[in-house]
Amino acid sequence: LTWQKYDVEVDIWSAGCIFAEMLEGKPLFPGKDHVNQFSIITELLGTPPDDVIQTICSENTLRFVKSLPKRERQPLANKFKNADADAVDLLERMLVFNPKQRIQASEALAHEYLAPYHDPTDEPVSQEKFDWSFNDA
Questions:
Q1: What is the H or E stretch that residue 118 is in?
Q2: pLDDT classification of 124: cutoffs 50, 70, 90
Q3: Is residue 124 part of a domain?
Q4: What's the rounded Cα separation, in Å, for the pair 19 and 94?
Q5: What angle do CA 40, 32, 102 make, to 5 degrees?
Q6: Which pick of 87, 105, 109, 134 has the fewest CB atoms within 10 Å?
Q7: With contact defined as beta carbons under 8 Å apart, do 83 and 55 qualify?
Q8: Residue 136's CB: how many other CB atoms inside 10 A?
Q9: What is the CATH classification number for the domain harbouring 88?
Q10: How many domains in the chain?
Q11: What span, in angstroms and rounded, lies between the C-alpha atoms of 56 and 63?
Q12: 18 lies in a domain?
């Protein structure tokens, strides 16, 4: 949306979309093109907050986003009625417009829903942080 540099937060969004598909058995945002996809996203997650809209670099994207009707975020529990409440809570934390406000991978792994599968002794952690410098080009 903002054309900022990709970071791990985009992976959390992607994992959230995959997780939602696992819960429901079909794609969460089955858009036909980027315009339709964004419309479907905002129907569920509401209009992006102002702090996200202010980071949009493309004038065309900004104009498009501002032209859409204001929408309120829908509780994901309404869409995922048969899902475990902890699963829905995790999904709510993954699908947040502002990348800096999304749950972090380490937090997601420690989330109550994943607790039965989380074993820190069997989850290797890289000694080095990933080098994102290729993103600076």
A1: none
A2: confident
A3: no
A4: 9
A5: 45
A6: 134
A7: no
A8: 6
A9: 1.10.510.10
A10: 1
A11: 10
A12: yes
Average pLDDT over residues 95-117: 93
Which two structure tokens, joined as six digits, stand for 129?
């942080």
CB 43 within 8 A of CB 71: yes
Q: Which residues contact 81 (CB under 8 A, 6 or more apart)?
A: none
64: containing domain: 8-115
The string of pLDDT tens digits covering residues 56-84 is 888 888 898 989 899 999 999 999 999 99
Place of tokens 């975020």: 73
- Flag whether 67 is in a domain: yes
Give pLDDT, residue 5: 60
Determine, yes or no, domain membership for 89: yes
| pLDDT (0 to 100) of residue 58 | 84
What is the pLDDT averaged over residues 87-101?
95
Residue 2 has pLDDT above 70, yes or no: no
Residues in the chain: 137
